[in-house]
Amino acid sequence: MRTQVGIVGAGPAGLLLAHLLKLHGIDSIIVEGLGRAVCEGRRRAGMLEHWVARLLIDTGVGDRLKREAEFHDGIFISHEGVARRIDFQALIGQQVVAYDQKDVVTDLIAHLLAGGTQILFEVEDAVLHDIHSDAPKIRFRQGDDIRQIDCDFIVGCDGFNGISRACIPARERSEHEMILPYAWLGILAEAPAPEREFIYGWHERGFALFSRRGDNLSRHFMQCVHSESQDSWPDSLIWDELTLRLGGARELSRGRILQKSYTPMRAFVAEPMQSGRLFIAGDAAHIVPPTGAKGMNLAIADACVLADALADHFIRHDEVKLHNYTDTCLRRVWWAQHFSWWLTNLLHADVQRHTFNLRRQSAEIDHLLNSQAAMTMLAENFCGRPYDPF
Ligand code: PHB
Fold it and tell me: Is the pTM for the entire model greater than 0.85?
């Protein structure tokens, strides 16, 4: 098999890249270790920055999003029993869009397959070869067959635990990591959420986030101790704890818990995001803590930068954007790291529950909710910078 761009991984970065390349007339093949149903079923955060929703709509993969996504004009921050709203629309004229990552993935897979792009699911033992030559290759097993894709470029969109990042030689690579001392316990439950928009809840017992996936489907999260397993939280205790952390700011409806999840909190950046003819994108290169819901948005921004750069290479024989890929992406990534770190620190109770820190956080939240300038700063960061190809 031969293609211009071999893509490893059928998550948001890989799928969107294939989609954007196709619009430029550049062909690609995606290889993915998991089956299609697993890719389409993996529940992750569900917040799109406005420009991402626009991009999906404008490039022809937003029909279901337009029908089913919820457009939010703001968020609530609850603190000491009161939920106060930060109105993005009034402050900066922008919105965010609640649409699950698995729905973005499902829509892109359907669109790509219908348009003839090959996505090879359930491949095993994928290995990248010759990334420092003009003819890099992806070799893998599919059933009993060993297969090879000859490529002009390879893009690793295979997540934090994928094979691609490690193919950038260790002597070129530096990694920056911060492991936070807590995690998120998440539930999906058959119950109406307390608000249509997200409520980010500060409480001295720990952070909680209240969101929804439909009229009778809630997705809530709460800060828990790092390494505490989801099994140590029986359902009734989770509801009790979430109710305490909402602090009376709203009524919390309970219902059957359908799924539980556990998300360790980590921040990570690898650089460079390229070596020879290999580029990496999305979680393969960087992880943000989930508090700012930036992960999928960053993956999509990487795909946009790379699609533009590859179009310049193939169509205009101009290498400048390819050469600058890492710097262009990391500027956005480090800004998102800073925002995610700031929001995480603002809202999570420190593990020792030092009263100094709790009082200091309360003062910062009080200032935030009473300052037009501080709320505007949060709104600009939360809604994200539109992608600018230049
Ligand atoms: C979610 O609904 O999954 C969600 C929303 C906002 C976040 C994180 C996760 O910051």
Answer: yes
